[in-house]
Write a structure and sequence with these properties.
The protein is α/β, with parallel strands linked by helices. The protein contains 14 helices and eight strands.
Amino acid sequence: MANKANILAQYDKQHKKYKRFANEVEHQLRSILEEEGIVCNAITSRVKERDSLDRKIDIKMDKYNDLSEITDIASIRVITYYDNDVDRVAKIVEREFCVDKENSIDKREALDPEKFGYCSVHYVVTMNETRLQLPECKAYAGIKCEIQIRTVLQHAWAEIEHDLGYKNEIAVPRDIRRSFSRLAGLLEVADKEFQEIRDFLAEYPQKIQAEMKSDPSELSDCELDAVVLETFINTSKTVQKLNQKISEIAGMEICNSESQEQYVRTLQELNFLQIHTIIQLNQRIEHNFDLAFFLADKFLHDRYMKEPEGATLTNTIGIYYACYAELLLNESDKDKLILFMEKNDIGTYTSQNAFAEKLLKYSREFTALQE
């Protein structure tokens, strides 16, 4: 097979060039997707192994006369988390590269609904004229590259299917074909469900903010979560007032927003106190306001180290002290206070013990002032 020998000789000579080309396309895609704000699970490049090329030429018999006719010597794989990101990446590929439409295929559309299989979008591309003007890209004129785009679940299917060794439906026993079909359907449903979850979570903060702004009473029995808690803190006049008073005595600004981890910590503290809804939290904040501020005033004036310049207070600080006020107003003893701190990973045993004693002391002082 003269053609085969010639193609393999070309491969040996140009292997490093294809490798550089694949790396360059991968780098370009990474940069573009980052600019577009598309987060991917993985973007990888590879050059076909010589043994793999050898087998491909044998299978295709006399189809190829030159290495340039083989479109997947260099290939890039883009694995997205969500199904609609496959389409977003596909549009970018079409925009940024010259697509060989004859050799490109969207296997999602090509697959017969009655057949089993799980697919991805395959493009065969070359660099566009603009990029070929760049010194580092001039050498890649005419070289083709395959770009595969699929979701994480589609990738999982393809990898398992490959590991099982079946690439053609006719080779698979009937019962196994049925199993493949069921699994493909489940994965397709899962892909769509994950997409819907992401869409919901993306719109959820705006939805909660709009509803709380228009009529907070409608959300009074809304269960607390990180988004609801953040929105409540940013819209509740009572919390804002408490935070502002604490900010003034501390001489520190309140951070406008916090990490989700901070809201999770606060939610855990509220759960310990059986506070699970907006109305419960609002009632406890209003009821505990004076003691919460009294405790904050005492502890912040007790500071023996000056905070570094630019340090801020968390926007959950008012709720933090309101939680201790809740415990004290419910006549919690030292053990209950320490248990609260232990369950919420606040301090060490020594610091917890000292803090609990101060809480009880300040609570007695507050009660005396009220009499």
